[in-house]
C-alpha cells in the first residue's frame, strides 16, 4: 500500500485484468480520463492499485488463465476490499453464481448470472440502457452478454434495459452486462472512478458523448 505522501504525489492508478478479452479498450478509456492504466497479468501487478477493472472476454478462458498465473487468490483478496468494475465476462467472474464454468467464480457480487444469455456472437446488439446513477440514456453494447437472473437484497440496480437489470452495484463492486468501453461515452467509467472508488480524477478533455449518448466505436 502506498504511503499518504505517495498518494499525494501521484494520480489514480487503476488496474485492468489483461489476460484475455478487450482490456485495451478499457485502457484507452482510462487514458481518456487522464488515469494511469496498469496491465494486470501477475500477482505483483496488483500492488499500489486504487481500483480494478475486469473486462469482457471469455469467462471460461479467463478462469483458467487466472489459475495458470497464480492470480486467483491475490485477485480475490483485492476485489473483496477494493473498488472493482466488471463488464460482461467480468460480471460473471465477480458473481456468486454462474452457469457452466470450469472453476469457481470470485464470489463477491451477490448475483446469479446466465452466461451468453442473449445468444451467440451473431446475436450481439446495441440498445439504450437507463442509468440510475447519472442523467440521460446510455448506449449499451451487448456482445454474447450475460443476464442477471436474480440478485440479493444488498445489491443496487444502477442500469436497466426494458426494466431488466443490466448494471448492479454492491458496495465497492460494480457489474455491467454491457461494454461501456466500446462507446465514446465516458460516463460509466467516470462514475465508477469518482463515485464508487472515490478517486479525484485529473482534469481531462471531456468526451463529446459525456453529455449525451455515445456511438459504438
Describe the fold and architecture.
The chain has 217 residues and is an alpha/beta fold. The chain has a single domain, classed as Class I glutamine amidotransferase (GATase) domain (Rossmann fold), CATH 3.40.50.880. The chain is 24% helix and 29% strand. It is built from 6 helices and 12 strands. Strands 2-1-3-4-12-11-10-7-8 form a 9-stranded mixed β-sheet. Strand 11 and strand 12 form a beta hairpin. The relative contact order is 0.17. The N terminus and C terminus are likely disordered.
Task: Please give a handful of descriptors for the protein shown.
single chain; alpha/beta; Rossmann fold; 9-stranded mixed sheet; 3-stranded mixed sheet; 29% strand; disordered N terminus; disordered C terminus
Give the full name of the CATH homologous superfamily.
Class I glutamine amidotransferase (GATase) domain
CATH fold label? Rossmann fold
- Number of helical regions: 6
CATH architecture label: 3-Layer(aba) Sandwich
Low-confidence stretches: 3-7, 211-217
Largest sheet, described in full?
9 strands, mixed
Trace the largest sheet across and list its strands: 2-1-3-4-12-11-10-7-8
Number of domains: 1
CATH class: Alpha Beta
Taking all residues together, what is the mean pLDDT? 90
Bin the strand percentage.
Answer: 25-35%
**Percent in helix:** 10-25%
Give me the strand/helix succession. HEHEEHHEHEEEEEEEEH
**End-to-end CA span:** 36 Å
- How many β-strand stretches? 12
Query: What structural class do helix, strand and pairing data support?
Result: alpha/beta
Amino acid at each position: 500500500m502506498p504511503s499518504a505522501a505517495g498518494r499525494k504525489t501521484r494520480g489514480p492508478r487503476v488496474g485492468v485484468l489483461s489476460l484475455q478479452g478487450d482490456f485495451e479498450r478499457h485502457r484507452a478509456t482510462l487514458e481518456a480520463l487522464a488515469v494511469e492504466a496498469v496491465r494486470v497479468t501477475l500477482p505483483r501487478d496488483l500492488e499500489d492499485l486504487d481500483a480494478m477493472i475486469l473486462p469482457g472476454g471469455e469467462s471460461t478462458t479467463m478462469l483458467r488463465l487466472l489459475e495458470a498465473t497464480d492470480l486467483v487468490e491475490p485477485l480475490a483478496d483485492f476485489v473483496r476490499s477494493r473498488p472493482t468494475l466488471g463488464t460482461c465476462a467480468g460480471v460473471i467472474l465477480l458473481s456468486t453464481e454462474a452457469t457452466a464454468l470450469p472453476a469457481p467464480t470470485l464470489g463477491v457480487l451477490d448475483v446469479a448470472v446466465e452466461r451468453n444469455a442473449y445468444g451467440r456472437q451473431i446475436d450481439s446488439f446495441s440498445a439504450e440502457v437507463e442509468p440510475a446513477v447519472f442523467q440521460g440514456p446510455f448506449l449499451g453494447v451487448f456482445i454474447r452478454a450475460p443476464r442477471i437472473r436474480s440478485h440479493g437484497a444488498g445489491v443496487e440496480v444502477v442500469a436497466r434495459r426494458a426494466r431488466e437489470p443490466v448494471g448492479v452495484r454492491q458496495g465497492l463492486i460494480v457489474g455491467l452486462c454491457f461494454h461501456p468501453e466500446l462507446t465514446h461515452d465516458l460516463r460509466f467509467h467516470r462514475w465508477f472512478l469518482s463515485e464508487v472508488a472515490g478517486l479525484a480524477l485529473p482534469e481531462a478533455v471531456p468526451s463529446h458523448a459525456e453529455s449525451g449518448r455515445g456511438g459504438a466505436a
